[in-house]
Amino acid sequence: MTDTKKQEQGPADGADEREVLLKVEGLVKHFPIKKGILQRQVGAVKAVDGIDFEVRRGETLGVVGESGCGKSTMGRVVTRLQDPTGGSIHFDGQDITRLNAAGMRPLRRDIQMIFQDPYGSLNPRHTIGSIVSAPFRLQGVEPEGGVKKEVQRLLELVGLSPEHFNRYPHEFSGGQRQRIGIARALALKPKLVVADEPVSALDVSIQAQVVNLMDDLQQELGLTYVIIAHDLSVVRHVSDRIAVMYLGKIVELADKTSLYESPMHPYTKALMSAVPVPDPKRRGAKSDRILLKGDVPSPISPPSGCRFHTRCWKATEICKTTEPLLLELRPGQQVACHHPESAEDQAPQDTVLLSAAKEAAAGARGTARPATTDPQPKDDQEAPTDK
Amino acid sequence: MTELSKTGAAVGEPSPSDAPSAFLEVRDLKVHFPTDDGLVKSVDGLSFQLEKGKTLSIVGESGSGKSVTSLAIMGLHRLGARGKNVQMSGEIWLDGKELVGADPDEVRKLRGREMAMIFQDPLSAMHPYYRIGNQIVEAYRVHHDVSKKVARTRAIEMLDRVGIPEPGKRVDSYPHEFSGGMRQRAMIAMALVNNPELLIADEPTTALDVTVQAQILDLIRDLQKEFGSAVVLITHDLGVVAEIADDVLVMYGGRCVERGPVDEIFEQPQHPYTWGLLGSMPRIDRETSDRLIPVKGQPPSLINVPSGCAFHPRCPYADIPKGDVTRTVRPELQQVDGGHFSACHLSQEDRTRIWTEEIAPKL
């Protein structure tokens, strides 16, 4: 294994000393639900509900979680495409939480976003040249040698031909469009790039091309990435540190080796074990798979205490009543759990399992795979969000 | 767990006799679509076999012809106005019956009863105006002369079987009231209500989270064991393939470039495109060397499929065989050993050398 560059840079060596570029504290984003003639607020979708993290210069932070856990909302709030409901965001030492559009404008060149859908994020009526040169126009930047030359250089940088300048988005394939989106994001040499599912719409061979491209550009331009994705294999490949989100909260935040080799939060463990491993020999060793029952509960009324307690096989009374804090239980590994895996129990006095946990544990013991196909009348959390 | 088999499904050259022994046999299937820009050769000469109780995975990039193949087996290309715009040839034998030349009414009787399909996107595959239960009841009553009440009981039973909580209540829900995973389960219930012997699943878990994906794959596996159905699973996720398939068929540009038992495809793949797929894939189970090895370039146009080997413009080894053979001659599937076939001009020695020395160590 070639072990170079950012690979394997543990939290103990170097990474910690790097300067913090983005600092998020207690970030909250609620979407109000309004009803009736008076449009009174009757509730809120708690998409992001109090998260803290830091991103250091030059590193890649991966954010993973199931759909609906708030990871995309987090990305949009951090880039101030949406306004936070509470908490604070510091970028490069400056508080950007409450900056207005005019105040944000000079910062926009430093914070850029790559979007998931390469079809929806490029204006079909604009040429590639006009799309990639838009940042220069909007920010009033006149690059050396003119905008056109700079755009052509960018197109080359992301592996497209400079002759593509006058073509339209529909003439390109998905992978090429994603490269155009990347060229646009990099036009003004940003400090931070937030990429929301940058490769999930692409075929596996093209996905690898784009992952490698983003990697090269990071080396070359010293970029800092926040990469939001649901594919745990991709996240393992690209990230230095990874945050696992569940229902608007970060449940675990660690460097990638610790996280993948010894996850401490039961949810992380379950998530990892659910990923199919591309190795037919491993089929026999499937007994370590943890199958979670049901779906993620509704973010409108998340479960009390630890939000994962309704699906957790280790849940006890304290999980239902007290919300666990995100604590550093091992160097570089923060976990929010009362009963973490492979670490000291945070609530050892509390040993009585909740009924849901008992069922899950019994199922897990009975067979290699918990009996998911059995009817589980208790699984009411599986109820959809809109009822 | 389905037993691994060396001699299982996708084996052998089509025999000359007309009545195949395999449960499902596709012979030299071609599906072409005439368009204003030219003839789109979505599937261009595909053959495979599948036995009952086995799972065949079809993998490949978008536009390689995976889904078109499955729709052809289901006889869905000839429906309505779309039927005028498709040219199909070849043979599809299901349980001793030929489907390509068959009367559409005959195929309709088989569809749903002997063969059923699970689609990728359950929200668009179900009718939003009808209750889940009524849609399952309809699928059942098309093939069984029973009262609505009996069919409804059957629908509840199926929803229960696929793990929908409180099926008696949920049978009256609308699709939008279900979450993604539940909708996918409901669609599986609908597909299995008539105990079909062939189940085609087109990217059944692509739109789902990994935790739900694991539930659905387990469900398909359990149901297959229970009913002994043959399953064709179309996917681009090699992790899913390793998990569930007995045999694998790799498609590129409308043709099969490699097929064989799942162990051999992962351990001794013989086609450079299969190597490319394996190299492109980030691994969750180990630290890989820090770069992925992508397949360079773009997937081929199906209107102007490259001459010779369709993969040659993207193949790093296209210059190894002598002369112009990779650019002029289309390689045929050749037996590697047992049930393992590959369509490549590289010699067996070259392939073994490249795989063991250049590719495998980097994965």
Poorly predicted segments of chain B: 1-16
Task: Please bin the fraction of helical residues of chain A.
Answer: 25-40%
Strand order of the largest sheet of chain A: 6-7-8-3-9-10-12-11
The backbone outline of chain A, from C-alpha atoms, is globular
Summing up helix and strand content along with how strands pair, one would put the structural category of chain A as alpha/beta
CATH topology of the largest domain in chain A: Rossmann fold
Helix content of chain B: 25-40%
Distance between the termini of chain B: 27 Å
Largest interface: A-B, 67 and 64 residues
Summed up, the domain count of chain A is: 2
User: How can the largest sheet of chain A be summarized?
Assistant: 8 strands, mixed
The average pLDDT of chain A is: 84
- The protein's oligomeric status is heterodimer
CATH superfamily descriptor of the largest domain in chain A: P-loop containing nucleotide triphosphate hydrolases
Query: Which sheet architecture does the biggest sheet of chain B show?
Result: 8 strands, mixed
- Spatial strand arrangement across the major sheet of chain B: 6-7-8-3-9-10-12-11
CATH class of the largest domain in chain A: Alpha Beta
